[in-house]
């Protein structure tokens, strides 16, 4: 065995397996493995493998019998450098995989050479897996202890149901909080990013408690700013939380930090506002209990000079002084900080603590907001995109998690378009769906009026917070500015009630829900999106209509297809009863001349069902949220028989287009997908003048209906796009492609945007 597993080393005393000792009474083996397995009338495959590797002189073995096991958990953590390492290595994230053979559960270490199976969403919870090679990593400090390592596997299909009643073979794995098998880390990380709190170490039990201030000396922030450099001991601070940042994980292999986390709180009293940094083990203890608006009493903190390059958020009150010369540090030790949450009923007016002042705007006001303006929004979710991931740095395993959402507030036909990054609130980020009352704070305006069409959307900042349920008692509900704006909160509430009534009526009429939709991902993997630039002449455009599926043969209306399928030509028939297809297509003369002499023709125009936005059904919200989220770290048993993705109707009625682009040297071509957004419920008045306009906006602009509200059907619009494509015959274009890895060896390539360069050198 090579690599790290080839070097036996000591693991933590609480992690690992108690291996059977042939010289001992087997009934006395810790955990009672043999006796318990025998009492159930079935021998554990896991136990047999452990005995086989114990009796083998080799460090690895091939199981004498390969039996399928179920994957119950895939958990990630950062592995520290080994003592023998002299050169720091890049972060190595390891995975512990919990399996079940029907008799016992076992937590195993996944060899890092197999990490790619997790990255590609092949190894995931809920599947059947066959292990063909295992090894042992012994604990040299304890007799008969070691870690079972998975060295080679074959991953199968998802299982319909998995029992969670099987016990762990080693009771050490049942301890709370859970511990990684290797290294000195005390906790697991979230599976797909480092910003989300994950596991049982993150406490939520901190409650307000009344405090006797008679013997408590308090100093104002402005006075502390003037005197901190000459002080050794600092009096208590009495402040209100104005902003709370998402978590920052700064763990590195060469750092022996147990819980390397950091978060920023912007706090204020009557004299100023300052940044408070919470470090390390205090974050798991306090982060989830602290929220914006709480009043804190801080004792035994430290003060240091502020970091010069960090930009503080704007103060909620322009009259309050922004203190940027110092920072307050909260630590578990050196010194151990004391944090007390003061009940709001004990807060006295004479303390003059600042009130929160949210910057709620309406969608109609957004058009006039400048670039980088900070604002808050409130409304109803009408579109929820699937979770995606983008790399923070190349050649690293660290990712940002984000998704696109649309929020309607009733003041404009256009929704807020929000790029929602993870805000360290996975309980909300992973549980949003259309028709939800949604609040998002500290958003930044992104706009480019010079671009055609104009670019305008909102993106989250480091201090953004989101809310979906339990709005009573939240800080923004007491904000006088927001409650005096009926165009935002009250309009959103009216729209919510109206849409709930409409939704119930539509279910009774068996009609599809209107334009509210979500974008699902059946594999539930956060796709890694990359952009690639491609040059060449436009060659071919084929419309790919949406065939009728099994869902429609059961009584659904045939004019609302529910799935896209790739079609080599528009006249190709599909399985089952297919709707009438759109026969328009276009091929350039250059393509006819060159297509049979290509060196390579790349086919990436297939659009998978999980990439199609679907109509939302409220009763199926739990199933749908699971479909468009990232894969969970632990297996969650389904409730009843879950529906199929194909049962949900598509929110697109135009289908997609297969676009072929020929390379500049006429030797290589690529087929990619183009998905223009068209929904009959969305009224547009602009015209399609060129395909460039259509693709640059990824949205179809139907021609003006001469004063009526009837829109042209998909056939007419597809024909207009075909005609627009013909204008690009032999035109040199530059294309921007989105490459999306859906996991499980599925890749999609979309034409994101094309340009026609005016100067070609």
Task: Please characterize this protein's 3D structure.
This protein is of the alpha+beta class and 761 residues long. 14% of the residues lie in helices and 29% in strands. Strands 8, 9, 10, 11, 12, 13, 14 and 15 form an 8-stranded mixed beta sheet that branches. Strands 24, 25, 26, 28, 29, 30 and 31 form a 7-stranded mixed beta sheet that branches. β17 and β18 (399-408) form a beta hairpin. The longest helix has 24 residues, at 486-509. Residues 1-40, 480-515, 520-528, 545-582, 681-690 and 697-708 have low confidence and may be disordered.
Q: Which parts are unreliable, with pLDDT below 50 for 5 consecutive residues or more?
A: 1-40, 480-515, 520-528, 545-582, 681-690, 697-708
Q: Please give the radius of gyration in angstroms.
A: 30 Å
Binned, the helix content reads 10-25%
Please state the overall shape, judged from the principal axes of the Cα atoms: globular
| Biggest sheet features | 8 strands, mixed
Q: Total number of helical segments?
A: 13
Arithmetic mean pLDDT: 75
* DSSP strand tally: 31
Distance between the termini: 56 Å
Derived from helix and strand composition plus strand pairing, the structural class reads alpha+beta
Q: Which strand-content bin applies to the residues?
A: 25-35%
What are the key terms here?
14% helix; seven-stranded mixed sheet; RADX; RPA1 related single stranded DNA binding protein, X-linked; single-stranded DNA binding
Short description:
The chain is α+β, with helices and mostly antiparallel strands. Helices cover 14% and strands 29% of the residues.
